[in-house]
Amino acid sequence: MILTAVPDSVLRAANSEVRKITSLRVNRVVAGSLAGYAVVAFAVMGLVYKAADTGRNEFMFLAGWSAIVPGLALLAAVVLAAVLGAVASGDEYRLRSLGISALFTPDRNVLFGAKLGVVAAVSFATVLGTELLGGAAFALFGRDRVQLTGDMVAIFGGVALAAVCWSVIGAALGFLLRTPVQAIAVMVGVAIIEPLVWITARAIGFGGFATLLPIAATVGTITNGAYAKGDFIAPTPAAIAVLLIWTAASAGTAWWFFTRRDL
């Protein structure tokens, strides 16, 4: 009944975008590999990890190698979501297929919204499936010693939100730069340069400025307040707000250029 209220043009555009992503074998292989790695990593964590290994106000996925291994799966989920967004939109220009898409979906608002919406939905579904499988493996293999805590659930939620946000940011950069390579390069550059900005800002007495940057906001969103007392990371609610602002600003800028420039 909900779908009947959605215009046919929106459904067609969304269906087309879903097929573009799911029909590529590499996307299915990467998603399956991520989920498989997460299951094994969380199973090992369930067998080895001890709650006492995590100190007070310490991020649990940095408490020993058994926690770091599944933590890498969560990090990879966010990174891959950003890459998926950049490739999904940037490849439209690289392969010169955007003009064809526009023939079937002439409304650029619908075309843009479908692209970002589907990328965000696919990223969320992939991360959620990975977390559910990983959490189930952790609970199964660690049932006699450890439990799936509220802290871990909160971290899972933060990772899912961060993945959705970065998939949208990646897609927005793909639209802005019109190439997936440059979009990915920009995100890698930000990840490398931003920590240097943190250090510089603290050195000149403006350490709080770092909390307004996207990587710092992402760390705050994912870590469930573990580093909220630091100079660079805001408390999780504030970090979530900052990350959402960056996401909205990226999407808004991309939309403005996409609806006004030639394809």
Kindly describe this structure.
- The protein has helices at 8-22, 25-48, 65-94, 98-104, 108-141, 150-177, 180-203, 214-222, 236-258.
- Helix content is 74%, strand content 0%.
- The chain is globular, with a radius of gyration of 20 Å.
- By secondary structure, it is an all-alpha fold.
- The chain starts with 7 loop residues before the first helix and ends in a 5-residue tail after the last helix.
Question: Secondary-structure blueprint of this entry?
Answer:
Blueprint: H1 8-22, H2 25-48, H3 65-94, H4 98-104, H5 108-141, H6 150-177, H7 180-203, H8 214-222, H9 236-258
Helix pairs in contact: 1-5, 2-3, 2-5, 3-5, 3-6, 3-7, 5-6, 6-7, 6-9, 8-9
Short description:
The protein has 263 residues and is mainly α.
Average residue pLDDT: 88
Overall SS class: mainly alpha
* Largest sheet data: none
The level of helicity is: over 70%
N-C termini distance: 35 Å
The parts where pLDDT drops under 50 for at least 5 residues are none
Helix-strand sequence: HHHHHHHHH
Which terms summarize this structure?
mainly alpha; 9 helices; 74% helix
